Backbone:
C-alpha cells in the first residue's frame, strides 16, 4: 500500500477513486506516565512516555485506515492526514484519514 500526503503519486496514474478512508484509536493517559510528565514539567525535556504513546496511536490509526482501503480494493492512499481530538479528560482520539485510490 502506497501512502502519501500529496494529491498524486509521481509516475503513477490514478485509475480508480474509492473515496475517504479513515482509521482511529482512542488512548488514555497512563498514571505512571503522568507522574513522569509532572517531573519533566519541572526540569524540562521530552516526555518520552507520551511520545511513545502518540507513536503507537498513529501507527494503529494508520493500520486501520490501510485495512479499510484494502477492503475497498485500493492499492494507495493519497492526501493522508492526522488529527487529534480530546475525548475526555485524560483521553484523546488519533484519526488518520485520506483518499483511497487504485493506481497503475
Residues:
Amino acid at each position: 500500500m502506497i501512502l502519501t500526503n500529496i494529491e498524486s503519486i509521481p509516475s503513477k496514474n490514478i485509475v480508480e477513486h474509492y473515496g475517504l478512508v479513515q482509521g482511529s484509536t482512542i488512548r488514555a493517559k497512563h498514571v505512571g506516565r503522568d507522574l513522569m510528565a509532572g517531573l519533566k514539567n519541572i526540569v524540562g525535556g521530552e516526555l518520552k512516555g507520551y511520545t511513545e504513546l502518540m507513536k503507537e496511536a498513529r501507527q494503529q490509526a494508520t493500520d486501520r485506515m490501510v485495512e479499510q482501503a484494502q477492503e475497498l480494493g485500493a492499492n494507495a492512499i493519497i492526501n493522508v492526514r492526522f488529527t487529534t481530538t480530546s475525548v475526555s479528560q485524560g483521553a484523546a482520539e488519533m484519526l488518520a484519514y485520506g483518499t483511497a485510490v487504485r493506481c497503475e
In short: The CA atoms of residues 58 and 94 lie 6 Å apart. The beta strands are 2-3, 14-28, 76-88, 91-103. The longest strand covers residues 14-28.
